[in-house]
Amino acid sequence: MTTIGFVGLGIMGSPMAAHLAAAGHTVRGYDRSAPAVEKLVAAGGIAAANTAEAVRGAEVVITMLPADEQVREVGGEVIAEAEPGLLLIDMSTVRPDTATWLAESAHRKGIRVLDAPVSGGQAGAERAALSIMVGGSAADFTAARGLFEVLGATIVHVGPTGSGQVVKAANQLVVGGILGLVSEAIVLLEATGVDPVAGLDVLAGGLAANRVLDLKRAAMIARQFQPGFRIDLHHKDMGIALAAARQAEVALPLTALVAQLVAAARAMGHGGLDHSALLTVVEALSGRS
Amino acid sequence: MTTIGFVGLGIMGSPMAAHLAAAGHTVRGYDRSAPAVEKLVAAGGIAAANTAEAVRGAEVVITMLPADEQVREVGGEVIAEAEPGLLLIDMSTVRPDTATWLAESAHRKGIRVLDAPVSGGQAGAERAALSIMVGGSAADFTAARGLFEVLGATIVHVGPTGSGQVVKAANQLVVGGILGLVSEAIVLLEATGVDPVAGLDVLAGGLAANRVLDLKRAAMIARQFQPGFRIDLHHKDMGIALAAARQAEVALPLTALVAQLVAAARAMGHGGLDHSALLTVVEALSGRS
Amino acid sequence: MTTIGFVGLGIMGSPMAAHLAAAGHTVRGYDRSAPAVEKLVAAGGIAAANTAEAVRGAEVVITMLPADEQVREVGGEVIAEAEPGLLLIDMSTVRPDTATWLAESAHRKGIRVLDAPVSGGQAGAERAALSIMVGGSAADFTAARGLFEVLGATIVHVGPTGSGQVVKAANQLVVGGILGLVSEAIVLLEATGVDPVAGLDVLAGGLAANRVLDLKRAAMIARQFQPGFRIDLHHKDMGIALAAARQAEVALPLTALVAQLVAAARAMGHGGLDHSALLTVVEALSGRS
Amino acid sequence: MTTIGFVGLGIMGSPMAAHLAAAGHTVRGYDRSAPAVEKLVAAGGIAAANTAEAVRGAEVVITMLPADEQVREVGGEVIAEAEPGLLLIDMSTVRPDTATWLAESAHRKGIRVLDAPVSGGQAGAERAALSIMVGGSAADFTAARGLFEVLGATIVHVGPTGSGQVVKAANQLVVGGILGLVSEAIVLLEATGVDPVAGLDVLAGGLAANRVLDLKRAAMIARQFQPGFRIDLHHKDMGIALAAARQAEVALPLTALVAQLVAAARAMGHGGLDHSALLTVVEALSGRS
């Protein structure tokens, strides 16, 4: 069993920390929100008063934070506090250059780091069915695998530091793009008087088949956009994808256009809806909203 | 058993007509290419010297032609020659307004019409595993169903005249778009030093999962672009999708951009490669070709 | 002085034909609308009962028609009726392949053809200040120059048959694109609390300077979108630009995206407004409408 | 006469500082590059050994630095060193949120701040003909105006803190977009056999007229891409424009696509060429390179 410091007990972090505690690990958790910490205690964890206290005595520290800014701030605190040998696993979704910065800062103090963002959302976290994309050394991945298996169903070591974040970015650009394409297909079908249910059934049976169609087409046709994964979060993730492209010096025209459609959904006031609400943007552009 | 006139015995039409003959139907076929007609005869069909001869005495006429221009020309000949009550099934991929024109022209003479484009390509035609998207009346669809079942695996009546073409257009815009998105993901992964095999494996396990990934990711990573479905044909289909959008008075920004990427693949000399060669365009844009 | 048949006496053709009559030419005009023909008679022209009558005895026939379909139909009638040696000048804005078809059809009967689309709109037609882009032979251009000088201020022979239409397409894609870019600049300025008047004044003083800014920025900031040149017409012209690109086998990504924004303006119900109403699309996408 | 600290004596800063010294101001300059400082001394300025020394005793500090990172670093040093009442003018091109951060940090110490990015490039700096876009308070703008007049020809106070950077971003998105549109026009003209010189002459005479056409069309047609303003710098500026849009919560689809075309030019190895080399990207996409 491992002594784990866990910082960031939000919608994702809370069930993840609880799963680790339930698996028998010692989980000392901290979050700015006191009720979040109390919830972990109720689930068998230990309350920490701040990041430093969560780090002290831990073999592994896991961070699950909203964005780059928090990872730089909390990551800095962890590194300042930690003893050499600690394994720091950042499971937040951030820019690859933030992952690189974190790893370089940590390595100077003898601290090991993995970037391990996840996909699968709140439901995946609660059901311990996340996909986990891990960047860092093979040795550190091996050391962490047992913990990852408590949290997720698909666990892949994809490459060196930052690779986890790049794969997450690639995932989100493909998901966002497919949502946009399915939205355009629905608008075209409906505008020409074709039953979208029958039309998308055909698409789902051929080369156009995809999981977005499988899981979301009925809700999209019914305009039911309860999240799921919110537009606000996908907007953040498209920003990361474009930042990763800029850093990698590649040009991704579809990704760039998808990012603007997601930004439009948010600007139109749909940031709190499921990302399938991209459909509302194509509708607005087609005068059908 | 049905007496069928079949006009257009190319890569797709040839195996389709042969399947119908093998199923016991009387198939009288015509193509401008004499060897194509001989091939049908060898498969149990009957040679027609021209379109008129294929039409004469037929209960059903099937056309499988390259593009709108040929459908208007041959369709006009069929209508001129046919007796009232004939069922004309155009299985070519053309613009919805061509399907509408064909149906309106035919109805004036008491001829029934279905638009029934297919997806699945040469392999699907040869294995009788096509997806067939049918527009027209329910009665005509019912009458034709037995023939469709000889040719395809997924057979859906999607709506009134033109609906088959609209669904085919929707299918092709989604397929083209996903090929573009997967291409952008591959370029991003490779440019950042992430193993694309491992990276795409993760994508294929989550919400980004799609059939293009399943069937084509290994070949794309290996840059093996033997067709399959050629860029030239997808370029034609993206033109149809945009024409359908214009007719429907909707705006489809992703479709429009995908169409330019496909046009670029063709302009760069890759028209004869599989449509997954969209990857070469993203590579060129990223200075990686 | 020249005997001219003039077919198409709409918003553009009416003042053009009147200028030619006022310059002393014999102008025999036809339009489907009887009042349009009467208006020409009042301006000194002669009424023709149909296209054939306008063509008979003419040295030059000018057509000024809404779109490709009418040019093919009326052009066919002119060619059928005309004597060898006639000079047919199509001043409509159509696809380059329509211009090529018209010229090839005419040449077979010994009829000379120029494609000579214009820019400058209704105001330019009324003030005889049009820009005229002419495709065809140098000899035919020289023969027609005197007539063009009655109608326009900028008259350029840009190349062989179809070249006039290509230059018009290039003009419209640049104008549409600049309208879109200025719209995005206005939305960015306003959303950040910057006075758009002051901001655009700076742009108009540097490398970003352009005639759209000069002529339209005040009206755009005030949301005054009386035409001017209507979105409906620009939508038609963007379709021509993309058709020209497809025929030329080039990829024009910005043009394709601009075409969708123009299509969106139309779909949103703004087809009758000035093309600067592209601003409303960017506003809608930014949740600011 | 004013005592000025000037930090950042590169291609832009060097002639600017020299102009201020020549106008009789006391200019104490610092740059990491010793020769740059010596050049200022030769032009009548005074050498500073570091930022702190440039700040000491100054009434006004001007910074002219490459990017956000340096502005945050040097700006922090200036604020740490300065006495209340100092006027800090950042003339670098950076993100609006960096301008906001700088102003807020400075205001807490009683230091006044203007953001005052410029356009006009090296030539504009050398000829004291820059356009200067100023954000900040009216009083501070008035205080600085005399200095700006030594450096530029167009000087506009566009709004509160950050506004200068937003206007610069708007300028660069319009310039980049027009370069892309003119590139697409050239490729379309050339691919259809139309003389681009004659074609663009027509465009320059109508509503498509713009300064990019006036200044750069001959060089673009001749494929002469000596800078001028480098692709590398425009790539940085498009990143700022998109960051500004994200911060402002607006969606700018054309800007996003232009940014990818500029990124492509850079990825293709043309970062050191003039930004009109965007033409090479459209050529590559059209198979004409």
From TrEMBL, chains A, B, C, D:
Pfam families: NAD_binding_11, NAD_binding_2
Keyword Transmembrane helix: no
UniProt-annotated catalytic positions: 168
Key words of the record: NAD, Oxidoreductase
Listed SUPFAM superfamilies: 6-phosphogluconate dehydrogenase C-terminal domain-like, NAD(P)-binding Rossmann-fold domains
InterPro entries: 3-OH-isobutyrate_DH-rel_CS (IPR002204), 6-PGluconate_DH-like_C_sf (IPR008927), 6PGD_dom2 (IPR013328), 6PGDH_NADP-bd (IPR006115), HIBADH-like_NADP-bd (IPR029154), HIBADH-related (IPR015815), NAD(P)-bd_dom_sf (IPR036291)
Annotated family: Belongs to the HIBADH-related family.
Protein name: 2-hydroxy-3-oxopropionate reductase
